[in-house]
Amino acid sequence: MNKILPERIGIMGGTFDPIHYGHLLIAQSAADEFQLERIIFLPTGKSPHKSEGQVTDPAIRCEMVRIAIRENPSFSLSEIEVANSHTNYTYLTLQKFRQMYPGTKLYFIMGEDSLDHLSTWRHPEEICRQASILAAVRSGNQMNQVQAKIEQAKKQFGADMYMLHAPAFLISSQEIRERVRTGRSIHYMLPGEVESFISGHSLYKTGWKER
User: Fold this and answer.
1) CB atoms within 10 A of CB 179
2) What's the rounded Cα separation, in Å, for the pair 18 and 151?
3) What's 25's DSSP letter?
4) Are the CB atoms for 176 and 18 separated by under 8 Å?
5) How many CB atoms lie within 10 A of CB 197?
6) For 106-165, what is each residue's pLDDT tens digit?
7) Could you tell me if 59 and 83 are in contact, meaning their C-beta atoms sit under 8 angstroms apart?
8) Phi-psi category of 162—alpha, beta or left, where left has phi over 0 and alpha has psi -120 to 50?
9) How far lies 62's CA from each of 41, 118, 129, in Å?
10) How far apart are the first and last CA of the chain?
């Protein structure tokens, strides 16, 4: 008799301000490397790490994600954090996902740079208990450094953590915002429909405060 394995769901949090090809490459790489049936994109709501004036309106960020992923049936959007008016903590969000998807195996996807700050997050040991952690690395010369951070997290928090290999894409959301602000092209950095949405809604034209 074949054993029925639990569904494997990846959860990819981020500000997505805006979402770009780097995010999509990491998500697809996670699905491929770890045989994930679904990837849920989780735009941040009220974050303990950023003030509200530094982030575009959640409804706009969610719409850009929705546009970017709609052609991939394995990708979906969760508004669980943006719908919460209180400060969002990852360990609480993962507890909610565990309740929503009982019997599944959850994988929380983060950038390898987040490993440097994991100890400052609220209840990192609970984060690691609720989900396996995938640390995305996009540069071959960082492999040894990232693996060392992973081993440290395993010891410190009892983490079930793995390195996620993704194609190099050295573009950030911050760079995209700055290019828009200064009138430079963002073509080929993100899906064309997201670029059109940014242009049509005059996003990022005047810096942080008027978003």
Assistant:
1) 16
2) 32
3) H
4) yes
5) 19
6) 999 999 889 999 999 999 999 999 999 999 997 665 788 899 999 999 999 999 999 999
7) no
8) beta
9) 9, 25, 28
10) 56
**Cβ-based neighbour number of residue 182 at 10 Å:** 8
Tokens 């990837």 map to which residue? Answer: 39
Q: Enumerate the β-bridge partners of residue 40.
A: 11, 76
Position 34: which residue type? F
Any bridge partners for residue 14, and if so which? 43
Tokens 């995010």 appear where?
Answer: 23
The pTM assigned to this predicted structure is: 0.91
Q: Is 23 exposed, middle or buried (0-12, 13-18, 19+ CB in 10 A)?
A: buried
What single DSSP character describes residue 91? Answer: H
* C-alpha triplet 133, 137, 141: angle, nearest 5°: 140
- The continuous run of DSSP H or E covering 150 comes out as helix 143-157
Tokens of 56: 């575009």
Contact 37, 73 (CB under 8 A): no
d(CA 46, CA 15): 10
Q: Which residue has the tokens 């994930």?
A: 36
Rg for the chain, CA atoms, rounded: 17
Q: Which one-letter amino acid corresponds to residue 45?
A: G
E strand residue ranges, 1-43: 8-14, 38-43
